[in-house]
Amino acid sequence: MSDASAERGRILIDLFTTLDGVMQAPGGVDEDREGGFRYGGWQVPLDDDVIGDEIWAGMQGLDALLLGRKTYDIFASYWPHHANNPIGELLNRVPKYLVSGGAPAAEWAETTVLEPTPAGFDALRDRHRNIHVIGSGKLVRTLLEYGTFDELKLWMYPVVLGEGKRVFDRGTPPRNLRLIAPATTSPRGIVTLRYAPAEGEVRSGTMD
């Protein structure tokens, strides 16, 4: 790897998910009721201080947010009114990129609308050091398809819901990943998994 490429920024995906892959509305009852989802806020009773510290540590150095429409709207309705804590201060301050093919209203401060193209995503690496994607399932699937991400971090919670929007739903493009750090487990059984893109097409075979 050349020095020039080593200096480029990274696109980091952060996702909270259940054991059956549900990512919908982890943080609040009314966060996202689309589809009649009944379990908004499923993450809250399972959190612990270890995960809280780990999430905050992972946000150190975050200097841009890359968000899909749904997550952007949730964040934009909440965080401008909760700026009196470290996470709120950080998210309100950094540049935000709303991924959309149209011209949506984007009233949260420091927001730029970004076309969902490989070149558009890749160009962010020249402007920022640590670009975080939080939630934004449709956007995550697009990044997987294009291969324009550097790390996928999953916080997997010990609960099964059986309904709701899933991280890797039907239509998710096949892609190989490689584990880049040992999995860790919190006192409440939350497993942290960190992956990076791996080379080659997904293959199948037969057990002998």
TrEMBL record:
Coiled coil segments of this chain: none
GO biological process annotation, one example: riboflavin biosynthetic process
InterPro entries: DHFR-like_dom_sf, RibDG_C
Any one GO molecular function term: 5-amino-6-(5-phosphoribosylamino)uracil reductase activity
Gene3D superfamilies: Dihydrofolate Reductase, subunit A
UniProt-listed Pfam families: RibD_C
Residues of the signal peptide: none
Domain Bacterial bifunctional deaminase-reductase C-terminal: residue ranges: 11-180
Protein's name in the database: Deaminase
Organism annotation: Microbacterium mitrae
Organism placement in taxonomy: Bacteria, Bacillati, Actinomycetota, Actinomycetes, Micrococcales
